[in-house]
Amino acid sequence: MNYAIIAAGEGSRLVEEGIAFPKPLVELNGVPLIDRLIAVFSKNNAVSVSVIVNEEMKEVRQHIEQIKADFPIHLVVRSTPSSMHSFFELSPYLKEGKFCLTTVDTVFNEAEFTEFIRKFETDEENDGMMAVTDYIDDEKPLYVSVNENDMSINDFLDKPDGREKYISGGIYCLTPAAIHVLSNCLKTGMSRMRNFQRQLVQEGFKLKAYPFQKIIDVDHASDIVKAEKWLQNGNISHNGKASHNGSSFVEKSSVPAGLKIAGVRRGNKYSPNHIGNDAAIFDLTVEQLKKMSCEVQEYSEQEFQEMAIDADIIFNMARDTATIQKLQLMEDQGKKVINSGYGIENCTRAKMTNILIANEIPHPKSLIVSTSDNLPFEACELGVYCWVKRGDSHAIHYEDVTYAKNGKETEDLLNEYALRGIPNAVLNEHLKGDLIKFYGVENTDFFYWFYPNDLNHSKFGLEAINGKAKGIPFDAEKLSNICSKAARVLNIHVYGGDCVVDEMGIIRIIDFNDWPSFAPCRLQAAPHIAQCIYEFATK
What pTM does this model have? Predict the structure, then answer.
C-alpha cells in the first residue's frame, strides 16, 4: 500500500493558542504527529510514504529527512492554496496500485485503521473507501450521506438534512483512477478536498464508508490534551514501562480546602522543541491540585520575578537565572519550594557532573574545561568520540549538547561556546549501548522508563547516535534506585533524564533534569506530582 500525508497547512489556530511547533511536530504522548502516522503505516504494509510540507517548514523538512524506514519516504516541499492542491502534488507517487491519503492531524484507533486497510486491500467491488465517524467535534464537518444497507456513499454535504449520521474522518483510500478526476477538478478551478469527493460521486465512482468509533482532528490546543487522553485509554500501542499503581490521588485525598499554591511556568526559550509538552505537564499538575481543593495562582517567570508572592508553597518549572535566584531567596526566608531553586542550579551541567561523581552515581568519564583555554591533555582519556556540553546552564540551543567525532571538532565547539560567552563546558566520553529515558517523582512510587527511539521521542535528534535499542537486559529496580539517589543528592523532587545500559547491563547516568516534560507519561505522572507537592507543603 502506498500512503500519503498532507502536512502543508499552517496550523494557524494552534499558533494563535500558543503552540509554537509546526503542526506535524506537535506531540501526542511524546510522539510527533508525523512520526505517529509513519509508524502506523509501517505496520500496515507500507510500500512507500509520501509527504507534502510547505516551503516555510524547514524544521519539519529536516525532521522528516532524518526518519529511517524500510520503505522510501518521498518528501514534497511546496506551498499550496488548498489540501486538494497538496493531494495533486503528491499524486505522481500514487499512480501504482491502491493508496491511502490522510492529513497529518488525524488521530484514530490503530486497530480500527488496520482493519480499515485490510478491508480496502481485499475489496474488489469499490473504487474507494472513506473513513467516517459519528463522533462530531469539528467546526466545519463534512457530512456523509450513506445507504445504511451496504454503507455505499451517496453524497457529501456541508450541512446535514437530518438523516446523516456520519461525517468524513479525513482518511481516503482510493485507486489510481481517482487521480484523473483530481486533475480535471484542478483544471476547472475547483479547490478543497470535499469538492473533489463530491466530484467522485458525480462521476459514478463507487465509494464505501467505513465507520470508525472516533477520529480527532488536532486543530486546537485543547485537541492535543483530548487526543492524548483518548490514546492513553487503550487506543494506541505503547512501549513505555512504568512503575506506579495508576490510582488517582484526587479521589482519596483528604486535602483541606484553601491550600494556597503558586505555580511558575517555564519560559518558552528554555523549552527548545518542547514548549507544548512543558506547558501540558504544568497544566495537568494544576488541574490535579485544583481537584484536591488547592488554590493555585499561576505565574510566568517574568511575572514571578516582578510580583510579590503570597503562597504556602511554590512549585515551578523555572530556568531563568533571575527566577532561580528569587526562589533561593524565598527558600532562605523559610518558604517551601519544589523543585528547590538550589536543586535547579545543581542540575546545570558542570555542577551536576561534580555532584553525581562525588556521590558515586554511575556516570561516564567526564572533564570540565574552560572554553577560553586550550583543550587539556586529559581529554584524550575520553576517547576519540565525546560529547561536548554547555557547562553553565541547561541546554537551550541545539549546539549546547553536541557529539564530537575528533579533537578538532571538540576545539571548534569550545571556541564557539567562548564566542557565545559560555565560560565552561563538560566533556563526556561516548558510551555505547541502549539509550534509555526515565522520569520519576520522589516520595511516590512513580518511575517510568522507555527507549526513545521506539517512540520517536527526541528534542534535538541526538538520540539517533546510539541507534535503536537492542533490549539489553538490566535491573530496572536498580535504575530506579540510582535515579532516586541522584535526585536526593541534587535536591530535586520531580525529575527525568537519560542513561546508557552497556552490553554487560551496567547503567550509567548521562543526563539528569529538574522537571522535564514527562511527554510519554504525563497523564500518569501528574497525579503523583500533585501529591508530592501537597505532601511537601503539609509535612
Answer: 0.58
